[in-house]
Each structure stands twice: as C-alpha cells, then as structure tokens.
Amino acid sequence: RMEGFGYYALPTGSEYRGRLWDGMFHGQGELLLPGGGGYRALWVRGAPTQGKFVFADGLEYEEEKWHYCDGYDRRFYTEICSGFKPPGISQLTNLHPPKKIPKGCYDCGDGFYNPKTRVVVDYKHKFLRNADEDEHEWILRTCRRASDGAPEHGPKP
Asked: What InterPro entries does its record include (predicted)?
C-alpha cells in the first residue's frame, strides 16, 4: 500500500497531495478540487481531524464568525484585497470580469444552470449534476441570469 508523501488522483477530478500511510491519507495533506480551491487538513487514517477549506481565490473559510459577504459587508473577496473598482465599473461577481453566462442560463456559483433541462455544468461545460426542485427554485430566485443584450445595471433615464 502507498506510504510516504504522494499524489493521488480521484475519479472525480480531485487530487490529494500529502502524507499517506497504509494506503490512507494520514498526516498533513490537501485535497485539491477540480474547479480550484481545496481542503488543507491533518488526516488520521483517511479522515480529516483539523482542517480549513480554501477557495480558488485564496479566501479561507471560517466556521466561527464568518463575515464574508454578509448583510453588513457585501464586498467580494477581491474587493477586500484590492479595493473597489472605479465608479461606473460594476463588479457583479468575485471574478472580474465575470464569466459570460450562456443564453437562457444562470451562474449558480460552481457552473451554469439551464432551467429548461435542469442540468448544472461546470464553467468548462462538463456535466456536474441534475438540479432537484429546491435547487431549481433557489437558482431562479437568487442567481445571476444571462443578459438578453440590454445592460443589466445601466443608468436610469
């Protein structure tokens, strides 16, 4: 079985980099996700005991006192790190410029959602999942939709 420091590619596209013992994640290691980001942890016999999720942009998730994009401070992580864009240049997502959403679809955070087929694909258009009724309703209610050509936040006449 695998032992020592190594890399292990999972069928999901995720990759583990770190210490292995008796074929299990054991010691310091990181589970890297295909879309970026990952989970850094101390693993004991395949299970994480202490860890931290880090998003693709470097933002670390805090379970206690999580204040990112809450009702008080709505800035994106890139705005916290780099400041605001000049007036007239809206930042609609943490990525600037934001991903172009295919016509008729929504950006649901980990990919694009087509409400007609109820399928979520990643940003490279690879299948991720079929949305259930709850996710479908949540996406339609809260997520950014593809523009129909008219400016989304243009000046009022």
From this structure: Morn5 (IPR042814)
